[in-house]
Write a structure and sequence with these properties.
Layout lengths: L2 H21 L3 H26 L3 H31 L13
Helix pairs in contact: 1-2, 2-3
Length: about 100
Amino acid sequence: MGPHFILLISALIFSIGALGFVIRRNPLIMFMSVELMLNSVNFLLIGYSNELRSIDGQIFALVIMTVAAAEVVVGLAIILTIFRTRHDLDVDHLDVLKG
């Protein structure tokens, strides 16, 4: 598995995540798409870290996973609160959080 293969797979997974984020209007699908994009970056970091025989990319990927887990917790709490008040999860109609 060479660096070109790692880059190709990571770009493919990132493109699928970006396409899912742009096309779908469901916030849960959008969060899953963002997580897919973050995982593709983690795959790229870990793959190239392995190719370069360095641990820096793996440590940075661990930090990204930690931040992504915190982001999901906060995002799902906001989505759950909006769903409880509006019973609608269409992103185009989410202006509930405006002051």
